[in-house]
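Problem 12. The chain below contains 122 residues. Write out its predicted structure in token notation.
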Amino acid sequence: MLRSLVIVAFLTINSAVVFAQEQEKIHVISRTVEGEIRTLYNDTLYGDIKILGAKDNYITSIEFKQKGKKKEVFSAEDIKRFKQIVPFPDRPEFGVDEVYFESQEDPNNPYRKFFFPIPEWK
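Solution.
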């Protein structure tokens, strides 16, 4: 019994350490740039995106403005994903032309969603 408890405790601690190592600090574009969002209904909207709230490894909200319309604020509960086009002066720093983020459940709280980086736009 004690041996099983020790094994379970070890596996739990080990998996928490591995998970913490996998979540790198994200690099965000802090100014307004061109991009697109994918709505919950799979519509694609094009406009300007600005990151409003970012933590170490996720984004909490964005501001989106389509041409000729008012600015809107979206959280990960409101849209599926978004992509930003990296402006030319920042491309060497980012190493890519575009960055992608997807709405996903918070690993620590399944009732909250945030935007996490993804490697490609699907």
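Discussion. The mean pLDDT is 84. Students who got a different answer should revisit the alignment rule from Section 12.3.
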